[in-house]
Amino acid sequence: MATKGIVGFVSLDDLSLEMAASLLRSGYSVQAFEISEPLIKDFLKLGGSQCASPMEAGKDVLALVAVIRHADQISDVIFGNEGALKGMEKGSIFILHSTISPSYIQNLEKNFTDDCETAWFVNIQVTKGKSEVLDDKIMITASGRSDAIARAQPVLSAMCEKLYVFEGEVGAGSKIKMVDELLEGIHLVAAMEAISLGAKAGIHPWMIYDIISNAAGNSWVFKNHVPQLLRGTTKYHTLTVFIQKLGAVLDLAKSLPFPLPLLAVAHQQLVHGSIHGFGDNEDAPVTKVWEKMHGVNVSEAVNAETYVPEELASQITASANTVNRIGFIGLGAMGYGMATHLLSSNFTVLGYDVYKPTLARFANAGGLIGNSPAEVCKDVDVLVIMVTNEAQAENVLYGEFGAVSALPTGASIILTSTVSPGFVSQLDRRLQNEGKNLKLVDAPVSGGVKRASMGTLTILASGTDEALKATGSVLSALSEKLYVLKGGCGAGSVVKMVNQLLAGVHIASGAEAMAFGARLGLNTRMLFDVITNSGGTSWMFENRVPHMLDNDYTPYSALDIFVKDLGIVSRECLSRRVPLHISTVAHQLFLAGSAAGWGRQDDAGVVKVYETLTGVKVEGKLSVLNKESVLRSLPSEWPVDPISEIQTLNQSNSKTLVVLDDDPTGTQTVHDIEVLTEWTVESLTEQFRKLPKCFFILTNSRSLSSEKASALIKEICRNLHTAAESVKNADYTVVLRGDSTLRGHFPEEADAAISVLGNMDAWIICPFFLQGGRYTIGDIHYVADSDKLVPAGETEFAKDAAFGYKSSNLREWVEEKTGGRIPASSVTSISIQLLRKGGPDAVCERLCSLKEGSTCVVNAASERDMSVFAAGMIKAEMKGKRYLCRTAASFVSARVGIVPKAPILPRDLGINKERNGGLIVVGSYVPKTTKQVEELKQQCVQFLRSVEVSVPKLAMGSIEERVAEISRAAEMADVFLRARRDTIIMTSRELVTGKTPSESLEINFKVSSALVEIVRKITTKPRYILAKGGITSSDLATKALEAKCAKIVGQALAGVPLWQLGPESRYPGVPYIVFPGNVGDCKALAELVKSWVRPVGLSSTKDLLLNAEKGGYAIGAFNVYNLEGVEAVVAAAEEQHSPAILQIHPGSLKQGGIPLIACCISAAEQATVPITVHFDHGTSKQDLLEALELGFDSLMVDGSHLSFTENVSYTKFISSLAHMKGILVEAELGRLSGTEDDLTVEDYEAKLTDANQAQEFIDETGIDALAVCIGNVHGKYPASGPKLRLDLLKDLHALTSKKGVFLVLHGASGLSKELIKGCIELGVRKFNVNTEVRKAYMDSLSGPNKDLVHVMAAAKEAMKAVVAEKMHLFGSAGKA
Length: 1376
Fold this sequence. Notes:
Layout: E1 6-10, H1 14-25, E2 29-33, H2 37-46, E3 49-50, H3 54-57, E4 63-68, H4 74-79, H5 84-87, E5 92-98, H6 102-115, E6 119-128, E7 138-144, H7 146-159, E8 162-167, H8 172-200, H9 205-212, H10 220-231, H11 237-255, H12 261-275, H13 286-294, H14 298-302, H15 309-318, E9 325-329, H16 333-344, E10 348-352, H17 356-364, E11 368-369, E12 382-385, H18 390-398, H19 403-406, E13 412-415, H20 421-432, E14 439-442, E15 445-446, H21 448-454, E16 457-462, H22 465-478, E17 479-485, H23 491-519, H24 524-532, H25 539-550, H26 559-575, H27 581-598, H28 607-614, E18 625-626, H29 627-633, H30 643-652, E19 655-661, E20 673-676, H31 681-689, E21 694-698, H32 706-726, E22 731-737, H33 748-757, E23 762-766, E24 774-777, E25 780-785, E26 788-791, H34 810-817, E27 828-830, H35 832-849, E28 854-858, H36 863-878, E29 883-887, H37 889-896, H38 906-909, E30 919-922, H39 927-939, E31 944-949, H40 951-956, H41 959-978, E32 982-987, H42 997-1017, E33 1025-1028, H43 1030-1040, E34 1045-1053, E35 1056-1061, E36 1071-1075, H44 1084-1091, ...
Domain Four-carbon acid sugar kinase nucleotide binding: 919-1085
Family: Belongs to the four-carbon acid sugar kinase family.
Keywords: ATP-binding, Carbohydrate metabolism, Kinase, Nucleotide-binding, Transferase
């Protein structure tokens, strides 16, 4: 049977035997060189093969594990003539399993790299797990370069239960081992001190052990070493081992340098203990050394009579007195919870606190309140005191209006505060001397605020039997674990003090260890994970170090509490004559933190003492990187663009890529692909019949609960399966397209797909998305922010109310999102080094080598990287492999082989003619969207109208408020759209979230559904629709616009998809822009909207005439005098889809003035067809100079009444000024007869254009258009009809066409169809029309209409009919 490969071993030990067995179970073969006969026999029993030399052990191996115990073995075992490297082949992996120092390992790697180019080098540290989950199971900590780690990972994973990977410098395992040894050494000495102090105070050591091993003072060392110490089975030689290990750690710290005060004192304690040793008798028990060091006879204490505190508690509570009335002093966080729980347990409770609002709150909860300690003590059976310290306890009992004076005879007091045993003993004596038979129970509590309110505290109670019975029912009501300790009042506080000693030391040692690890360059989050499964762990380490990693010092337990509690320990050790070095140094560390001003912060803040002294940061956040520097540091891209190879491979690969998109933004890198918004078997079957390379299904599952999302994915996958089976040769690969910032239903959707599609060879995780600035480098996913790369877990996206996460490392993200089901150590990766050095074939090889059911993350920093991976994946699929992909958008375009194209503009879609405003709907709440909306409103204030809808009214208000808000928004939007204004409908920007992710999703649904209702109520067809945000864009497309299918045309902006809605939708063909919430900088939305604004004044007269020249038609220039005339021309042009020119004569300008010009310009800007405004017959220099400043697109310089020389000079002057402003210039050579606007030219004054003069005139003046005189006249032609010199026109056209000058014919009124056609054929591109339009206006006035409005309407219709007729005559109709 074929194996996955051979793994060799050079030297064996017990751990490597277990590793070999695990490899064999995973399908590998193993071989080994070992000189120890017992070890090799065990190896052969497992099924391994024996080798005669290290060289032979390295032959034909996939990987070689070298177990090196001493540095002096390396030369012979690895590099010698018979050394392991001699037998290894190129591409094999050398795995060093050793405990030698990190610096030696780093030097070895360098020598290895220099001497051996054939193998990859990885260093591992192998240990047994100590946690409940990994108890006695193999753990491996591996370090090395990312490419070496990636290659070794399958073998490493097969050798162990838990794999930790530290990419980069080798030696991480040895460093972690030192950190773990630091903690174990401190914890051992602290455990000795704690037991000694407790025993000296009269508490049985086994009582201490039993209680502490279930309390916050517990550690792995305490739980596992203390029993051996108490039994005397830990021998003297153990001290020597610890001294050597801790000495090595201190030597390394000194070389850095780095202070380790707790470790230093622990080391000195052990050295001191060795001085009290027993000579050469290494089998002597450590207990004897311990007793000499601390002056406490622990052996005697261990042999004392024992008892079970829980049984005593049961006896006490079973015979407890009835308690009716309880006084309670101290209603702080813990006290309030305890007091209210007593209320719910049917006790009558009278409460007092110095803080009056708390008293009022307690009264509202059903308690009785008093204004002083004395007032709440009248007639009570039991008084509970829960204050901060001894001074407060003294004050409430014996201060002004103190409790003692008011307590009834025979009452009992329960002191639950953490105070010194000496204070309790003294208080007990004072109460006895009061002569009122007052009884004291010493009952310190632990468990926190939540447990206090639930009545599940741990209570350590001590006192007389009478006192305990009197208070038993109260103690029972407050506790889940009740320990009753012998020894009288103070015994409970002794055990609490011992617990606090250990807890404080463990917090401080955790700080020291994590700061040291940070100084060693270790990833502190991974270090924490390793330690929690190792011997250095403790309850406090696991509970408090996460605060350090998160840099969150919100006080769950204030640092000053340990200043107090360890201060109690210091006083007690002095009074009882027990030297406690570790706890005293820990106390000093907490004092240093308090002195620095951190006393009211969380006690984990003690780590700041180390951070401040050394400059290290324990915080487990990944660094923000400089994008340019990181990208420049990467290897050069794979030299060949794989897109053409992908396209070729896709020709042979029949699989269709089916992309299940959890919101519409996933289409942001593709074009000319269809997206379905329904997934019936019929619609899917139709798609498969088209044999597409890809299609999208819009699931919008990100807006659903995880249960609904999973059900939806299953339904779609079942339908896909059914549809594919019904179409011959249909096969497909499913891609779960998700958010590039890692939000969405993972792994729920992947699990759902697998449940229908069957097991896959691997899950592929690939969130790279270039257009959105998402990069994956070294398995860390980054979000680009300007010139920085921010780890995804540190962005606002990671704080998403529904899909939040912490991990930026994708392997750790997988573990986090799967709740540990898929451990980070089992997740493999495709590195950028592999993509850029190995290419598609290396990717294919790596994918094919994955174990079935693996998870693989893909690194990428460029589109080329993505294409290399896609090509490799297709090759693996063609070998029969099946993959389920969870990716961002870039993977899809690479996998399909799409060549990007430029962003699409409105003119590319031909929507410039549409009149209504565009509709922008914003639902996304990410901060980036809010910034983009602010910038949009600021930049586009002139043409944009805004409608803001209230989220509280939509999601939290009454039905009536919701309906009214929806109606208001729809009505306002309708008005703005009809007024041709682009309109933004946006949700109010305050973020409203629920208490749980499901509640937040419900609020999102209410808001999104309201936006759908608003858009459905809008009756005006928008010119385009832009939806901002994934859920918003999906809901609008499917529910508001009723689209079942759309075509992805391309992108409106990089990363912003542009669809055209299908024929079944409300607005077929309308461009639909899907703008993701997390794409683009703050100006992106504004820039896009500005590019989609309906063109205003973009046409010029020159453009119109150029188009006419190309199309062989002419443009009508119609004289206008008033609003009706302007409206008539524009309305005719829009109805006939014709360009047109609004023409103002000096005579009409004299009457209408600037308002007439403004009317024309505004009408031209608002028209849906190209219209320009022209100033006609400028015979006055003054008029023309004014016209240059009034916004005309073109003007006519009329010097026809001047001599040729004067005409040239006059026209040239104006022409030069006009061209500086981009204004087209028309001039007249020759002179027309007739009358226009009271300007009459007699026949004898008329003059034809001289073709010989025309060339000089054009050259001298630089005009753009020439108005010719070829027998045409202004006004009416004679009865005999027009007599045009077409021969002259032909000559003039021959001349002007060479010069790029347009021909213009005035006096077009009355010309026959044939003459018009002939003129157009001979180059006339502009006809001036006036007389017939004027006549139509005047004739309409004689009609029956009496009302002015009706007169205006009739006049407009009459003129419009003439204008429309001329447009058809000139051939311009249908040309806009």
